[in-house]
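Exercise: predict the structure of this protein bound to flavin mononucleotide.
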Amino acid sequence: MNKKIVAIMGSYRKGGITEQAVEAAVESARKLGAEVSVIKLLEKHIEFCTNCRACNQKSGEARGICPLKDDMNEILDEMDLADGFILAAPVNCFNITAITRRFFERLICYAYWPWGMKTPKMRLKTKNKKAVLITSTAMPAFFGRFLTGGMKALKVMADTLSAQVVGSLFIGLVSMEEKPKLTEKEKKKAEKLAGRLLK
Ligand SMILES: Cc1cc2nc3c(=O)[nH]c(=O)nc-3n(C[C@H](O)[C@H](O)[C@H](O)COP(=O)(O)O)c2cc1C
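Solution:
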Protein backbone atom coordinates (compact mmCIF):
# COMPACT_ATOMS: atom_id res chain seq x y z
CA MET A 1 0.00 0.00 0.00
CA ASN A 2 1.17 3.56 -0.72
CA LYS A 3 2.65 5.45 2.21
CA LYS A 4 0.68 8.40 3.43
CA ILE A 5 2.44 11.67 4.21
CA VAL A 6 0.95 14.83 5.69
CA ALA A 7 2.79 18.13 5.29
CA ILE A 8 2.14 20.93 7.77
CA MET A 9 3.00 24.34 6.31
CA GLY A 10 3.27 27.11 8.88
CA SER A 11 4.46 30.04 6.79
CA TYR A 12 2.37 33.21 6.32
CA ARG A 13 3.78 33.83 2.86
CA LYS A 14 2.26 32.11 -0.15
CA GLY A 15 5.07 31.13 -2.51
CA GLY A 16 7.67 31.99 0.13
CA ILE A 17 10.81 29.99 0.66
CA THR A 18 9.24 27.62 3.21
CA GLU A 19 6.37 26.79 0.88
CA GLN A 20 8.79 26.28 -2.03
CA ALA A 21 10.83 23.82 0.05
CA VAL A 22 7.67 21.97 1.14
CA GLU A 23 6.50 21.80 -2.49
CA ALA A 24 9.84 20.31 -3.59
CA ALA A 25 9.66 17.65 -0.87
CA VAL A 26 5.99 16.94 -1.62
CA GLU A 27 6.55 16.61 -5.36
CA SER A 28 9.42 14.24 -4.77
CA ALA A 29 7.39 12.14 -2.28
CA ARG A 30 4.57 11.88 -4.83
CA LYS A 31 7.03 10.77 -7.53
CA LEU A 32 8.19 8.05 -5.13
CA GLY A 33 4.62 6.82 -4.88
CA ALA A 34 3.42 8.40 -1.65
CA GLU A 35 -0.03 9.81 -1.12
CA VAL A 36 0.59 13.33 0.19
CA SER A 37 -1.71 15.98 1.56
CA VAL A 38 -0.58 19.51 2.37
CA ILE A 39 -2.18 21.39 5.23
CA LYS A 40 -1.57 25.14 5.06
CA LEU A 41 -2.25 26.34 8.59
CA LEU A 42 -3.12 29.84 7.36
CA GLU A 43 -6.12 28.42 5.48
CA LYS A 44 -7.45 26.50 8.47
CA HIS A 45 -9.66 27.46 11.37
CA ILE A 46 -7.57 26.64 14.43
CA GLU A 47 -8.51 28.01 17.85
CA PHE A 48 -6.08 28.58 20.70
CA CYS A 49 -5.82 25.81 23.30
CA THR A 50 -7.78 27.06 26.32
CA ASN A 51 -5.97 24.81 28.82
CA CYS A 52 -9.26 23.17 29.80
CA ARG A 53 -7.40 19.81 29.72
CA ALA A 54 -10.60 17.97 28.72
CA CYS A 55 -8.54 16.06 26.12
CA ASN A 56 -6.07 14.90 28.78
CA GLN A 57 -8.31 13.34 31.39
CA LYS A 58 -8.91 9.87 29.90
CA SER A 59 -6.03 7.37 29.66
CA GLY A 60 -5.38 5.21 26.61
CA GLU A 61 -3.41 5.32 23.39
CA ALA A 62 -5.97 7.19 21.28
CA ARG A 63 -5.68 10.98 21.31
CA GLY A 64 -8.05 12.80 23.64
CA ILE A 65 -11.04 14.61 22.20
CA CYS A 66 -10.92 18.41 22.21
CA PRO A 67 -14.25 20.16 22.77
CA LEU A 68 -13.35 23.14 20.53
CA LYS A 69 -15.25 23.25 17.27
CA ASP A 70 -12.78 24.01 14.50
CA ASP A 71 -10.71 22.20 11.84
CA MET A 72 -8.32 20.56 14.28
CA ASN A 73 -10.19 17.26 14.70
CA GLU A 74 -10.31 16.71 10.95
CA ILE A 75 -6.60 17.57 10.58
CA LEU A 76 -5.60 15.18 13.36
CA ASP A 77 -7.83 12.38 12.01
CA GLU A 78 -5.81 12.62 8.81
CA MET A 79 -2.48 12.81 10.65
CA ASP A 80 -3.33 9.75 12.76
CA LEU A 81 -3.56 7.72 9.53
CA ALA A 82 -0.24 9.03 8.16
CA ASP A 83 3.08 7.19 8.06
CA GLY A 84 5.10 10.37 8.11
CA PHE A 85 5.14 14.15 8.29
CA ILE A 86 6.81 17.13 6.70
CA LEU A 87 6.77 19.79 9.43
CA ALA A 88 7.65 23.26 8.15
CA ALA A 89 7.67 26.76 9.59
CA PRO A 90 9.90 29.82 9.19
CA VAL A 91 11.49 31.49 12.19
CA ASN A 92 9.84 34.69 13.36
CA CYS A 93 11.15 36.37 16.51
CA PHE A 94 13.59 33.52 17.17
CA ASN A 95 11.08 30.68 17.00
CA ILE A 96 8.40 29.06 14.82
CA THR A 97 5.58 31.31 13.61
CA ALA A 98 2.69 31.98 16.01
CA ILE A 99 0.27 30.10 13.78
CA THR A 100 2.48 27.00 13.96
CA ARG A 101 2.77 27.36 17.72
CA ARG A 102 -1.01 27.59 17.99
CA PHE A 103 -1.31 24.30 16.08
CA PHE A 104 1.48 22.77 18.18
CA GLU A 105 -0.22 23.61 21.49
CA ARG A 106 -3.31 21.76 20.35
CA LEU A 107 -1.26 18.54 20.08
CA ILE A 108 -1.50 18.25 23.87
CA CYS A 109 -4.33 15.80 23.17
CA TYR A 110 -1.60 13.20 22.47
CA ALA A 111 -0.72 13.30 26.17
CA TYR A 112 -2.40 11.89 29.28
CA TRP A 113 -2.41 14.58 31.96
CA PRO A 114 -5.33 14.37 34.34
CA TRP A 115 -5.82 16.95 37.08
CA GLY A 116 -3.58 16.04 40.03
CA MET A 117 -0.73 14.78 37.85
CA LYS A 118 2.35 17.06 37.77
CA THR A 119 3.52 16.57 34.19
CA PRO A 120 2.00 15.11 31.03
CA LYS A 121 2.83 11.58 29.82
CA MET A 122 2.81 10.84 26.12
CA ARG A 123 0.13 8.29 25.27
CA LEU A 124 2.39 6.35 22.87
CA LYS A 125 5.78 5.14 24.10
CA THR A 126 7.21 4.26 20.68
CA LYS A 127 7.92 6.43 17.66
CA ASN A 128 6.06 4.59 14.94
CA LYS A 129 6.15 7.39 12.33
CA LYS A 130 8.81 9.47 10.60
CA ALA A 131 9.19 13.22 10.21
CA VAL A 132 11.35 15.66 8.30
CA LEU A 133 11.69 19.27 9.40
CA ILE A 134 12.02 22.45 7.34
CA THR A 135 12.69 25.94 8.63
CA SER A 136 14.10 29.23 7.34
CA THR A 137 15.68 32.38 8.73
CA ALA A 138 17.07 35.76 7.73
CA MET A 139 20.30 34.92 9.50
CA PRO A 140 22.69 32.35 8.04
CA ALA A 141 21.53 28.79 8.69
CA PHE A 142 24.68 27.99 10.70
CA PHE A 143 23.79 30.67 13.28
CA GLY A 144 20.07 30.03 13.02
CA ARG A 145 20.48 26.45 14.23
CA PHE A 146 22.09 27.67 17.47
CA LEU A 147 20.53 31.07 18.04
CA THR A 148 16.88 30.33 17.35
CA GLY A 149 14.43 27.79 18.74
CA GLY A 150 12.76 27.03 15.39
CA MET A 151 14.28 23.64 14.67
CA LYS A 152 14.03 22.57 18.32
CA ALA A 153 10.30 23.41 18.37
CA LEU A 154 9.70 21.39 15.18
CA LYS A 155 11.60 18.48 16.74
CA VAL A 156 9.43 18.55 19.86
CA MET A 157 6.38 18.72 17.59
CA ALA A 158 7.60 15.55 15.85
CA ASP A 159 8.13 13.87 19.24
CA THR A 160 4.60 14.79 20.25
CA LEU A 161 3.32 13.17 17.05
CA SER A 162 5.30 9.98 17.86
CA ALA A 163 7.52 10.61 14.86
CA GLN A 164 11.23 9.98 14.60
CA VAL A 165 13.10 12.81 12.86
CA VAL A 166 14.93 11.40 9.82
CA GLY A 167 16.13 14.63 8.24
CA SER A 168 15.98 18.40 8.30
CA LEU A 169 16.54 21.39 6.05
CA PHE A 170 17.54 24.78 7.44
CA ILE A 171 17.41 27.57 4.85
CA GLY A 172 19.28 30.72 5.87
CA LEU A 173 19.78 34.22 4.43
CA VAL A 174 16.20 34.39 3.22
CA SER A 175 15.24 38.02 3.65
CA MET A 176 17.54 39.68 1.10
CA GLU A 177 14.97 39.57 -1.69
CA GLU A 178 11.24 40.27 -1.78
CA LYS A 179 10.60 37.05 -3.69
CA PRO A 180 13.28 34.59 -2.63
CA LYS A 181 13.85 31.52 -4.77
CA LEU A 182 14.97 28.14 -3.54
CA THR A 183 18.48 27.41 -4.84
CA GLU A 184 19.10 24.18 -6.77
CA LYS A 185 21.08 22.89 -3.78
CA GLU A 186 18.22 23.59 -1.37
CA LYS A 187 15.71 22.05 -3.79
CA LYS A 188 17.81 18.88 -4.03
CA LYS A 189 18.05 18.74 -0.23
CA ALA A 190 14.26 19.08 0.09
CA GLU A 191 13.78 16.30 -2.46
CA LYS A 192 16.22 14.10 -0.57
CA LEU A 193 14.16 14.55 2.59
CA ALA A 194 11.21 12.87 0.86
CA GLY A 195 13.38 9.83 0.15
CA ARG A 196 14.30 9.53 3.82
CA LEU A 197 10.69 9.81 4.84
CA LEU A 198 9.69 6.95 2.57
CA LYS A 199 12.59 4.56 3.29
C1 LIG B 1 7.92 39.24 12.15
C2 LIG B 1 9.17 38.60 11.65
C3 LIG B 1 10.11 38.15 12.57
C4 LIG B 1 11.28 37.55 12.12
N1 LIG B 1 12.18 37.12 13.04
C5 LIG B 1 13.34 36.53 12.61
C6 LIG B 1 14.31 36.08 13.56
O1 LIG B 1 14.13 36.16 14.76
N2 LIG B 1 15.45 35.54 13.09
C7 LIG B 1 15.71 35.42 11.74
O2 LIG B 1 16.76 34.93 11.37
N3 LIG B 1 14.78 35.81 10.83
C8 LIG B 1 13.61 36.36 11.23
N4 LIG B 1 12.67 36.75 10.30
C9 LIG B 1 12.90 36.49 8.87
C10 LIG B 1 12.15 35.21 8.45
O3 LIG B 1 12.66 34.07 9.11
C11 LIG B 1 12.23 34.98 6.95
O4 LIG B 1 11.68 36.09 6.31
C12 LIG B 1 11.49 33.70 6.64
O5 LIG B 1 12.39 32.64 6.78
C13 LIG B 1 10.86 33.69 5.30
O6 LIG B 1 10.05 32.55 5.18
P1 LIG B 1 8.87 32.55 4.09
O7 LIG B 1 9.49 32.89 2.79
O8 LIG B 1 8.30 31.19 4.15
O9 LIG B 1 7.91 33.60 4.53
C14 LIG B 1 11.50 37.39 10.73
C15 LIG B 1 10.54 37.83 9.81
C16 LIG B 1 9.40 38.45 10.27
C17 LIG B 1 8.40 38.96 9.27
